[in-house]
Structures are given as C-alpha cells and as structure tokens.
Design goal:
GTP binding, 13 strands, alpha/beta, 10% strand, single chain, two-stranded parallel ribbon, Rossmann fold, 25 helices, Four Helix Bundle (Hemerythrin (Met), subunit A), nine-stranded mixed sheet
Length: 787
C-alpha cells in the first residue's frame, strides 16, 4: 500500500465516530489530557502522582494501574505505546523488576526522571521504610531513556554494588550477570511533556509459567507471583491484564490471578495483544472477549497491535507504530468488520482513554477516603511514636544526672510518707504508700511483743482447772490489752510456782526476804523472746522497702537506653539496702542487749502499775479464797451509784443523801486523811497471806513488763525506721554518683554507653518518624488540592 493510501486510511479512521485514535507525535487530547475533562480532575491526578512521590503508598491504598501478564505477553510493547519511550529488550531485564511510570501532560519540554525505589534489602527482607534515590540527572532526550532504565534495572538486580557505579559510561558488564534474578525494588519513571498522557501505572514482571523460564526455579516463580499479588490485591489497584492471542487463553495464569483478587471483574481491564498472530480460523474465539461475551469485565476487553520484533529492529517510530496499528484494525478482518460500538475497544488510544477515565473516576472517589485514612494513620503513628521510650539525649550525662535527682526526690517523698490516695502511680494492688505498707509489719511486731506478757495466775496450780481468770479492768480501760492468740497452758505461771522459784533463789537473806534475782530471771526469760519478732520485722520492712525502691527505679529509669542504667541502679541500691539492713539489725541487737539488765527511770509509771497489779493479784486471790470484800468491791466498780442514794423516811421527811458499803468506807478514810484511795486499795486491808511475797514478785515483773514492752515496741521500730527506711534515702544520691562513676574521668563514656537504645527500638523509632513524615507530607499535598 502506498503512503497516499496510508494517509487516506488514517483520515478515514480519524473521522470515524467509533474511533478516537490520533496521528503523528501529538496524541494530546487522549484521556485526562482531553480538554473535556475538568481542570479539577486533572489536579486530582497530579495530586495522586505527588502522593506516590512521597512513598505513602506503603501506608495508604492509592489508586494505581498495575500491568500484569505472562512473560512475552506483550506488556513491554504496550507500555511503550502508552508512554512513548523505548524499554530495554536485549536481555529481558525489563521484566525482572517493577517499572513504575507516572505520566503527566505539561506545557514544558519533554523530560524524564529515573529513580530507584528500594523496599527490600540485599537479602530480600523488607526495609520498613521505602528509600527513593534519583538515578542520574533529568533526561531531556528520549533516546537516552532506554540505556538509563537498563542501568537502573541492573543496579536493582545487583544490590550489593553501589548504585552510582552503574551510571558510569564504561559499564560493559552483560545484563545477564546479576546477583538476583528478580527483585521487589522498582524503577520509577516520571515523564512529563506536551505529548504525554495523564496516567500512572506500574509494569510488573511477567508471570513465569515453568522453571525453564526462571534462573531461580520455584523461588523465582513464587517471588514474581507474590510481587504481582502485593499490587493487585489492593482495592484501589486497577488491573491491566495483558493476554497474548498467540497462546491459549486457558494457559495464561495472569487471568487466574486477576480473577482471584477481582472475582467480579470490577477493576480489571483486559488487553489482547498480538492479534496478528492468531492462528487461522481461531479469530472468532478472541472476538468474544471484545464483545464481552467471554470472561466479561465491567470495563471490557480491549485489543491493541504493537510493532513486531522486525519493526523494532528497524527502529520504527512511535507515530509510525500507531499508524500501522490503525491500518491493521481498519483493514484486517474480522476486526474491521466489528460493529461500531466494539470498534471503540480497539487501538491503544482507546485503551488509554478508558484507563484515564477509570483512573480519574477512582481517584475522585478515593480522595475523601484517603484524607480520612491519612488522618487516622497520622494519629496512630504519632501515638506509637509517643509510646516509645524517650529518645536518647545528646548530653546523656546531664540527662542521667537529672533523672537521679528526680528519683531521689521521689524516694524522699515516699520515705517521708505519701497519702494512700496519691499512690496511683504503681497501679492496682500497688497503691499503698511505703509507710502504709510497713505498718502491718510494725503492728505484727507489737502484737508479738505483747504476746510475751507473763501469764501469772494468783492461785495455786492445783486450782487452775477450777478457777476463771479475768484480765485487769484497768488495762481494758487504757486499751492496753491487744487481741492475741490463746497461750498454751504450759505458759501459765501459777502462784505456788513463783514462790517455789523464790524460795530456791534464797541464799543469805533474812527470813521473809527474797533476792531480786527472781524478778530478773522472769524478766530475762521474757526479753529473750523479743529478738525473733524484732528480726522478722527487720526483714519484712526490708522486703517492703526493697520492693518500693524497685518500683521507683522502674518508674524513673526503665525507659532509658536498653535498661543498663536501671539494672546498675537496681544493683547499687540492692547493696545499699543490704548495708541499711545490717545497720538496722545491729541497732536492734544493741537495743535488745540494753534490755538484758532491768532498768527504768520512769519510777512513777512503774510504781503506779506495781500498785495496780499488786492490788489486782491480791484481790483476785482473796476472792478465790472466799472473801466477800472482793465481791463487794467488784459490785461497787460495776455500779458505784447503787451505794449512794436518797433515803426518804418519816424521820427524814425532806430526804437526805445516804452512803452505804464501799462508798461509805472510802468517804470515811478520806475524812481521816487517807486521800485518793480507790476501791481496789481496800483489798490491802485483808489479813496477811503466806503467798504475799509471791504476789509481790508477780506485781514487780508484770509492772516492769508494762514499762519495758512499751519502750521496746517504740524503740525497735524507730531504730529500723531510722537505719532502714529513712536510711535508704540518706546519702543515696552520693552513693549513686559514686557507684555509677558518672562524675569521673570516664563519666561521659559511661553515660553514653548506658544511653544507647536497642537497635530494634532505634529502627522502630526511625521507621515511625519516616512514616509520620511521609504521612504528613501526603496530608499536606491533599490540603494543597483545595488551595
């Protein structure tokens, strides 16, 4: 056919209402470049391209077109026909890593920026944060693009080598000599110019049908399939499915994969390639796709005709290739015989128009959702970053010093005592303040000491089973008698036993006199029992203080570095607490040694209790012996007003106040100068008792116990508090500084080592920062849409 005839055919095709192809190099007016599309939609496409530039597609599902197909399905030729550039073909590296094309129409000169996006490392493991690196300077001549892409692909397939080394002009290494056969890292092309359609898509490696098509065997087959799946599984991915007409449709796995992730065909656009290679007589089978009768898709099937291998070797131009495509569909049956409505599904120009329309509609629908997803993702990223431990300081020594001062101040506050309601820091079950948690141990100690009360009985052992014994009423009124466990019968000391010991202790004393050694022996026996509960309290308080110190260390230092500082401080304070415990135990032992010799300058208190216990024991014995006086005294103590009443009679018509019984005796004794007597004192008027001396010894020991146990019940907790509780806070800052060594010549190095955070935490922090940065950058791009 002559060139004139070619021109006639092109003009006829252009004038046809069912076709929308263009001729020559100028294919502006296709897709979003068509003026019929609103300026707003053009801006939205530019926005999505800018969003892709931020790398936010790692986090947000951005609208994108993914070109998939089997190897040799004609994908590369299709990409060339859409983009207007030439892709490397010699070794097939074009199909071994994704090639992302972001096309945009502009009034400026044609240009192409080639970049490399790294998403996996040399071992194929995810980087966590995509790395975008521009590969060489901006290109302004289309002829240079093919070589630049080839070099970029080789750089990706040789990840251990410096990327810039592949830009050298003397790069003559064969493309087949690569370290990996396939990669998830991609080449990115940003192409703009007056002859460029507004479109974005990604050409993915061709699916491998068998091991013979792969250097890496099954691993490469799985790698490519997983890579393709990672793109097309996203709801906002438009699947551009290329199917070569020279191969049986059933044998092309790309369709099965597309249908798996888009079963309803809502986001898949099918493209039949190589229609000139359909075996004779099988054309009708492929026409069913164009008519959407077979494997129907919402956006239909298209058919394109790309240059043959011979045409490519001869250097066919883009415009000439489009002319040949138009002539093929206009003059070749059965394509030329299709109804007008189906003619719009033939030719590259119609495909680009449909792709542009579908992409722009998806962008318009997705943008509001993307804005919401971005805001949510930004908040999540910010919260995740905020939840991480504080970032290491550039001046770790100052930061550690500040932490130590805050810690010691907090420790001092807890040692002084914090109200229980203010203890929310340590969570449920840990709310009690330090002093509150120590108090049960102190109370247990007090009860244990009080339980050593000498259990004297003012009657003989033979009467022990028939007598009842009541606690002294004056102890109850003073709330001195604590609830304690019942003592064993063997702990009871009867009156005759006391007298026996006293008699055995006599040496050269005159008759009726007994040595003080008897009282001392009873007292020493009691004091021996105090050491065990005192040491138990020491250890109990130490455990409480130790636990609270650990809680405070965790609170103040757990998020610093990798925990080395917290670990060292815990060890230092453990040793410090051990020293405090030893001092407390030493003080307790010293106090108990003081009690070895009975002593008290509190003579009034001692004498008062001695008198009370003497009267109590004597009265109890007398009552047991049947004396009515003690019963009368008890009755009076229970109801003193009963013996003081108004008596009315004929002799005393006006009534006079009459006293009877105990009240009358006490009043009479007061009249003769014996002032201040109490009902219990009347028991002393009873006749002498052969057990008098034993009762006196009982009263001496019991009275001294009241004085001594109160003293010990206060002094030992005070000593423990001073040496162990307040002791842990005393000089603790100096101890920490000294043991940590941060003020020495190596202080800066020590602080730096302790401030290092774990590589995992550092990587997570860096990842979150980069994620937050790209999310905020993407959000800024979205805001610019309305500007």
């Amino acid at each position: 056919m002559s060139s004139d005839e070619d021109t006639v055919l092109i003009e006829q095709t252009s004038s046809s209402s069912s076709m929308s192809s263009s001729t020559g190099d100028n294919h502006a007016g296709v897709g979003l470049s068509d003026p019929q599309f609103s300026h707003g939609r053009r801006k939205m496409l530019d926005l999505v391209n800018r969003l892709h530039s931020t790398g936010v597609q790692v986090d947000i599902d951005l609208p994108q077109i993914a070109v998939i197909g089997a190897q040799s399905a004609g994908k590369s030729s299709l990409i060339e026909s859409i983009s207007g550039i030439t892709l490397p073909r010699a070794s097939g590296t074009c199909t071994r890593c994704p090639t992302e094309c972001r096309l945009s129409s502009s009034d400026g000169p044609w240009k192409c920026i080639v970049s490399i996006r790294l998403i996996v490392d040399i071992n194929g493991q995810p980087l966590g944060q995509a790395i975008n690196k521009q590969f060489g300077d901006t290109i302004y001549e289309k002829e240079v693009v093919e070589d630049r892409i080839r070099r970029a692909q080789r750089a990706i397939l040789n990840p251990s080598k410096p990327i810039r080394s592949f830009l050298e002009e003397n790069d003559e290494v064969e493309d087949t000599d690569t370290q990996v056969s396939f990669s998830s890292n991609c080449v990115t092309l940003q192409i703009s110019g007056p002859d460029v359609a507004d479109l974005s898509f990604c050409d993915l490696p061709g699916l491998i049908a068998s091991q013979s098509g792969s250097r890496g065997g099954d691993s490469d087959i799985d790698l490519v399939q997983n890579l393709v799946t990672s793109y097309i599984k996203k709801p906002s991915c438009i699947i551009l499915l290329t199917v070569a007409c020279e191969t049986d449709f059933e044998n092309q796995g790309a369709h099965r994969l597309a249908k798996e992730h888009d079963p309803d065909g809502k986001r898949t656009i099918g493209v039949l390639t190589k229609p000139d290679r359909i075996p004779l007589g099988e054309e009708a089978n492929w026409l069913k796709f164009i008519r959407n009768e077979r494997e129907p898709l919402v956006n239909n099937w298209f058919c394109v005709k790309q240059p043959s291998s011979d045409d490519l070797k001869k250097g066919i131009t883009w415009s000439r290739a489009r002319d040949v495509e138009n002539r093929f569909f206009f003059s070749t049956a059965p394509w030329s015989e299709l109804e007008g409505i189906y003619q719009s599904y033939l030719r590259t120009s119609n495909l680009v128009k449909r792709l542009s329309t579908v992409l722009s509609d998806l962008i318009a629908k997705r943008l509001p959702q993307i804005q919401e997803e971005l805001e949510k993702s930004i908040q999540i990223a910010y919260n995740s970053l905020s939840s991480l431990p504080k970032e290491p300081s550039s001046d770790p020594r100052s930061e550690i010093s500040s932490l130590l001062h805050v810690f010691t101040a907090d420790l001092a506050k807890h040692v002084e005592g914090v109200p229980d309601s203010a203890q929310s820091t340590f969570g449920e079950g840990q709310s009690a303040g330090l002093i509150q948690r120590i108090r049960p141990a102190q109370e247990t100690f007090r009860r244990a000491i009080q339980a050593t009360t000498p259990n004297f009985r003012p009657y003989e052992k033979k009467d022990g089973g028939t007598r009842t014994f009541q606690s002294p009423s004056f102890l109850k009124s003073e709330e001195e008698e604590a609830k304690r466990d019942c003592l064993k019968p063997t702990s009871v000391i009867y009156l005759d036993e006391v007298l026996q010991k006293a008699t055995q202790a006599r040496t050269r004393e005159l008759p009726g006199h007994y040595p003080f050694a008897v009282q001392k022996a009873f007292i020493e026996e009691i004091v021996k029992k105090w050491r065990s509960p005192a040491m138990v309290m020491c250890k109990a308080v130490h455990a409480v203080v130790s636990e609270r110190v650990k809680e405070l260390v965790l609170k103040h230092f757990s998020e610093f570095g990798q925990g080395q500082l917290a670990s060292r401080i815990n060890f230092i304070l453990h040793q410090h607490l051990k020293s405090c415990l030893e001092k407390a135990q030493e003080s307790v032992n010293w106090l108990l040694r003081l009690e070895d010799a009975p002593f008290s300058l509190n003579t009034h208190y001692l004498a008062d209790y001695r008198e009370k216990f003497y009267a109590f024991y004597k009265g109890a014995r007398t009552e047991a012996e049947g004396h009515a006086l003690m019963s009368t005294i008890k009755s009076y103590q229970a109801n003193p007003s009963a013996q003081t009443s108004m008596v009315y009679s004929k002799s005393y018509p006006n009534g006079t106040l009459q006293q009877t019984g105990v009240a009358k005796v006490l009043s009479a004794l007061d009249e003769i100068g014996l002032h201040g007597l109490k009902p219990d004192d009347l028991a002393k008027l009873l006749p002498s008792d052969p057990m008098e001396h034993a009762i006196s010894i009982m009263a001496d020991v019991r009275a001294y116990f009241q004085v001594a146990y109160k003293r010990v019940a206060d002094n030992i907790p005070l000593a423990i508090d001073y040496e162990l509780v307040r002791g842990v806070e005393r000089h603790v800052l100096q101890v920490l500084y000294s043991q940590l060594g941060i003020n020495g010549v190596d202080g800066q190095r020590i602080c730096s080592e302790m401030s290092y955070e774990s590589p995992q935490l550092a990587a997570k922090r860096a990842e979150l920062k980069k994620k937050l940065e790209r999310l905020e950058k993407a959000s800024g791009e979205l805001l610019s849409l309305g500007a």
